[in-house]
Specification:
Layout (H helix, E strand, L loop, with lengths): L2 E2 L1 H11 L6 E6 L1 H4 L1 E2 L2 H13 L4 E5 L21 H7 L15 H6 L6 E2 L7 E5 L2 H5 L13 H7 L3 E5 L9 H7 L7 E10 L2 E10 L6 H9 L5 E5 L2 E7 H15 L2
Parallel strand pairs: 1-3, 2-4, 2-7
Antiparallel strand pairs: 4-6, 5-6, 7-11, 8-9, 10-11
């Protein structure tokens, strides 16, 4: 197995179209990139070196285990134990709460100097750079991916989406299209998370759009045919770079034609 250096990652990122001063949401699989000399630290350094101080990087830092067992996220616990989870799961702390299956890069990024993490207890994002404060502020319980959320603010800023070694099923921006689309069966669901409220840990109920990404790979396969995606290798990982507005607008149209 070859060792991949930071300068190679920087070259790959520039070759796929990432530029100085870009605002970009990044989804990564470090394992698929290969043996990176320095691991997640080197990958983040490469990203920050390319976009520079005038750029912004955002990553999902979701802690979706902080949801009710009824949703299926605690599949390894018997139903008889669910009330114990509801009563004892730690309240979300944006500085402390780890990510769940977001990968090594996102887990390190949430602790990266200068990074700011949003306050959503289950669906947080973290951002670094020029627009970090703007992107992460006021990420309210019921507005995970809707207008005024971090994902919608990326759209406003004409950001890019970078998928490194992952597919469209990880492309969080398509959830903004969920919100903007009209389709049969669209509905809200009530979720619960442990949060601190007035200094007390509470198991908080909140209503939000039902999150379902089962057709995201189908959307991505159709979008790839539109010619709007820059494709290349980041290390050994098949990767894609696209404008967020392009994938969101396309997804709205696709969902309204095909879903339901």
């Amino acid at each position: 197995m070859r060792a991949i250096k930071k300068d190679e990652l920087i070259s790959d990122l520039e070759s796929i179209g990432l530029e100085k001063d870009d605002t970009v949401i990044v989804h990564t699989s470090l394992k698929n990139i290969g043996y990176v000399c320095g691991g997640a630290q080197t990958m983040i350094e490469a990203l920050t070196n390319v976009v520079g101080a005038g750029g912004t990087i955002m990553m999902p830092t979701q802690s979706w285990k902080n949801l009710d067992p009824e949703t299926g996220v605690h599949w390894d616990v018997d139903e008889s134990e669910w009330d114990i989870i509801r009563e004892n799961w730690p309240a979300y702390d944006r500085d402390l709460t780890p990510t769940n299956t977001m990968g090594a890069v996102a887990e390190l990024f949430r602790r990266w100097p200068g990074s700011i993490r949003s306050e959503h207890p289950a669906r947080s994002v973290c951002a670094w750079g020029k627009h970090a404060q703007y992107l992460t502020k006021e990420h309210t319980l019921s507005n995970i991916f809707g207008e005024g959320s971090p994902i919608a603010r990326l759209y406003e800023l004409d950001a890019k989406v970078l998928l490194i070694g992952v597919g469209y099923d990880k492309n969080t921006s398509i959830h903004l299209a969920d919100v903007r689309s009209d389709y049969p069966g669209k509905h809200n669901s009530v979720e619960h998370s442990a949060i601190m409220e007035n200094g007390v840990r509470v198991w908080k109920a909140y209503s939000t759009l039902f999150v379902d990404g089962e057709d995201f790979d189908d959307i991505g396969a159709a979008f790839d045919k539109e010619g709007c995606v820059c494709r290349g290798k980041i290390g050994d990982a098949d990767s894609r770079l696209m404008k967020q507005r392009d994938i969101v607008d396309f997804s709205v149209s696709w969902i309204e034609k095909n879903r339901g």
